[in-house]
Design brief:
single chain; mainly beta; 4-stranded antiparallel beta sheet; 26 strands; 42% strand
């Protein structure tokens, strides 16, 4: 493919390819309309994957606690500007009077998994606005189970939606939906009891992480490996033994834990995945009892954190924090960071 100029010279295909790879996703979506050859190039799976791996632009999605809407923020810019997103089934989410609020399950490869209604899940690309509904699980090993866990993640070859169900006995069932194969399958597991709190799995290093309780009563950090499709456990920091509860997250590609006991909280990151000795405490000077870290601000050493009303930037090396100048920060229900991509959920 080449593009002709007024003096009948052409731009080589290789140069056009490299230029397009460097453009934002929104621009690429518009440029699909330039010509049929540009449409074919930008839609080509090889181009889509190269753009994904080269692109570093990140966005933050916050779902609203007071309604079923979500806001998108580009977190690598100097200023955060909110853009309201359309979620599938958004208009019908609360018509049944259940009061159920749309939540974000997770993200990978630029795709975001949401649940606008109980047990209804969509995978969407917020920038291209493509979406796909996850079909209902065709098998229910534990029909009475209401404490299922969910997660969403990707391997090198596929994107997977995970549903973990718990039986009355020490049995578990893991249902796996493959977006590539468009089908469900099941693997059996055991060793953990149904959770006290249903939270989405945290994706990092090719696995989904949860705080689970063993049948002996101890709480452990468990991960479901998306390639091997089995659970494994990771050691907790020795200094965290005084805390019974913790939540999981990701900071700068590192697994992050937030331990809490009453009004006390501590944050730790695992700098080397799977190595106990690499656990490092992160000090957040902006009252760590009332904030949750989201990501590194503009890929710096500063943290972007959130409380119930504000987005804040905290410097872990110095005391103090500053408000991020944004408009319309919602009373948030769930948050998710994703990278911009052309990847389609279909």
């Amino acid at each position: 493919m080449s593009v002709s100029s007024e003096n009948n010279k052409t731009i080589p295909h290789e140069i056009i390819f490299e230029i397009l790879l460097r453009l934002p996703v929104k621009s690429l979506c518009r440029f699909k309309c330039v010509s049929s050859s540009w449409l074919a190039l930008i839609s080509d799976p090889q181009f889509v994957m190269l753009q994904l791996h080269r692109n570093k632009r990140r966005n933050l999605i916050l779902s609203n606690l007071s309604g079923n809407s979500a806001y998108n923020y580009s977190i690598d810019e100097e200023k955060l500007v909110s853009v309201e997103l359309d979620f599938p089934l958004e208009q019908d989410a609360n018509r049944d009077g259940s009061g159920y609020l749309a939540r974000i399950v997770g993200s990978c490869n630029g795709l975001v998994c949401t649940t606008p209604k109980p047990k209804i899940f969509f995978v969407l690309n917020p920038l291209t606005r493509e979406s796909k509904r996850i079909p209902d699980v065709p098998f229910e090993p534990f029909p009475r189970s209401s404490d299922d866990l969910y997660g969403f993640g990707c391997t090198a070859e596929d994107c997977k939606f995970i549903k973990v169900s718990f039986g009355l006995k020490p049995n578990m069932s893991v249902a796996i939906f493959s977006l590539r194969m468009n089908s469900w399958r099941r693997v059996l597991a055991s060793g953990y009891t149904r959770p006290l709190i249903n939270v989405p799995g945290t994706l990092t290093n090719g696995a989904l992480h949860w705080r689970l309780q063993k049948h002996g009563g101890d709480f452990v950090l468990a991960a479901f490996d998306l390639v091997e499709e089995r659970f494994k456990e990771f050691p907790l920091p020795d200094a965290s033994t005084s805390f019974r509860f913790f939540g999981t997250g990701v900071l700068g590609d590192c697994l992050c834990l937030q331990f809490f006991k009453g009004k006390m909280k501590e944050h730790w990151i695992m700098k080397e995945y799977g190595v106990k000795e690499s656990w490092t405490r992160v000090f957040i000077h902006q009252d760590p009892n009332n904030v949750w870290p989201l990501c590194l601000w503009k890929n710096s050493t500063k943290l972007l954190v959130i409380n119930r009303k504000n987005l804040l930037v905290c410097d872990c090396n110095n005391e103090g924090s500053e408000d991020v100048a944004v408009a319309d920060v919602p009373n948030w229900n769930s948050a998710c960071v994703y990278v911009e991509s052309l990847v389609s959920p279909n």
